Model the fold of this input.
Amino acid sequence: MKPWQQKWSLVCSLLFLSVSLCYSNLTCKEGHSGPTYESMQSVFALQAFRPAVNLSNPTVTNISFTLYAVLGVNEKTQILSTFLWLRLYWHNEFLVWDPDVCDGVTKISLPVKHLWSPDIIIYEFVDDDVSQACPYVYVNYTGHIRWDRMLRLVSACNLKIFSFPFDVQNCSFTFGSYMHTIKDVRVSPALTFKEMSGNSKRYLEASGEWELVEILGETSILKFGIDEWDIITFWVIIKRRPVLYVVNLLIPSSFLMVIDILSFYLPPHSVDRASFKMTLILGYTVFLLIMNDLLPSTANGTPIIGIYFSVCLALMVISLLETVVITNVLHRNSLKYREVPHWVRVVVLRHIANLICYRQPEDMQPPAEPQGGKPERSDGSSGSQIIQLHDITMETFPATMPELQQICQHLGELRGHLTSLQKESELQDQWCHVGYVLDFLLFRIYLLLITCYAMVIICMWCIWISQG
Done:
């Protein structure tokens, strides 16, 4: 620094110190209440200077606020809109007077635009402040200033919506000076965090969707390069009231799922079961389209209730596909006289049936064998008797009458037809057994998944209640 610059800096410092000492106490005239207008003008002239006689002493700013309302939560843009009653305290060493000389006046109001005010900002602020400005401050005779502000705060917040609608959000409000470092401006809470939390709860009791849980905070130092800023961070913990979403989302979805579960009691080979399930899927899809606006959406997460709806829709589709497959199994394979493969018998009829504790219905049990060890025919005669009659007739009497030979031929054709009918009936029973086992398996899996999701939602609701 050049010599003339050093001299000029010294002169300015002495001039500012002399002016500060001259106006350290305001004057009052006899017959006037409070400091005189002339002495106030002298203080207003020092607006551009930090109000400290010794500039090495930092100006302490005390901060408190009352959370009046939660205006909205935008999960997609991760923005929280709130309305605060903000209160700032600081000390102006130039605004000091003796109340005994000034007719007992201890407090006056002055325009804030004529006084120095700390440049306290909220670091999470992401929009312009459109709230109504308060143009006045209260000044005590000791020089302590109180500035009450109404602040519409639009702040960035890391919103976690996985547990929606039983979610609890923790958003931070960081207060600190924008320009002045820790050597010039210090910040501290004006009230305890418990007092701020209690004041806010009184005003948020009937304030819409959100409920205040607690306000926490701490003071810290923000370092950026070689400079340090004194900051104070408040954590505002709020939780959502889920009744609206339980009534409009969970309960209707549960009704549709219960109806879909009851549809498993319809016969799987019935065509009405497939059409019934398709109607349910159509109704559930319309329900999701109508309720889509109530579900929050973000690029980095999906609420568990959205996953629940997707799984429910997927289960409905799978149950419809299962009905189609079983219908195909019960009709197409039996008509083509296909035997049930050995691996299907082992996997489905033995292992899966034992796993799900499935018992074969009595009307699907295989026919019991007679004492002779050979199955009876549907016409009351045994198969061996028909074979013996045919063999005896064709071999013992080869030269019989043509009428008797024709009767024997018809009996052989009848025997073949009865054999084919028995085989078809046996195949149909076997494939019906396979279809019923698969149907019961999907029904048990369906119930298991729905029960698990219901337990998860109930546990989340209990956790939400315990956090109150």
Observations:
- Residues 402-466 form the longest helix (65 residues).
- Residues 245-368+387-466 form one domain.
- DSSP finds nine helices and ten strands in the chain.
- Confidence is low (pLDDT under 50) at residues 13-24, 363-394.
